[in-house]
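Researcher: Let's try something more involved. This one mixes different molecule types, so please make sure each is placed in the same coordinate frame as the others.
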Amino acid sequence: EAGVAQSPRYKIIEKRQSVAFWCNPISGHATLYWYQQILGQGPKLLIQFQNNGVVDDSQLPKDRFSAERLKGVDSTLKIQPAKLEDSAVYLCASSLDGFYVRGVLAGARGTQYFGPGTRLTVL
Amino acid sequence: EDKVVQSPLSLVVHEGDTVTLNCSYEVTNFRSLLWYKQEKKAPTFLFMLTSSGIEKKSGRLSSILDKKELFSILNITATQTGDSAVYLCAVPTQGGSEKLVFGKGTKLTVNP
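Model: All components are placed in one shared frame. Result:
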């Protein structure tokens, strides 16, 4: 089974430039996550998609970060404009499916599997 | 606010040693606790624990959960240089998002 794919693996940009990251989850995984991991810290969730809908973007800095998953499969995360403090590894993860309570999506199910990440350096 | 605290933050041992990594948590509506190993960039899944007192084992790695005292330990016996990595502990938060809250990790270095 192919894992979560991400590109690029490394990116170096100057502050105020724009950058985009791509993620293709494991086939059949409905839930997709973007995490930001700053050096010395654990990953922090930026946004979670269930199919092509946003479930949680409470920690996404919406003034500069955006993400989409238009067809419910692969996803892009964009930063515009970048700041020095955005230097981090951006991890994409996916998990199998959601579960429903009385017909309403109540959460994701299953272990999250991570891609190799993109290391962003903002100069 | 949900919180995960890991200790120690860093550990250096020699090959063959046994290590114990600690993870304590505070979370509303606890459902599970996960351990990941992060070598270069991608965290790789090790264990998911949901019940107290039941040991999960995979080769030289084992883990156990104590829901009363709100902690978990990850044991690695007969360590090898390939065990050198950051070990992350995470819990899903309450609500529908299932987002994981991670600890800062324990950086394990195994010297030959």
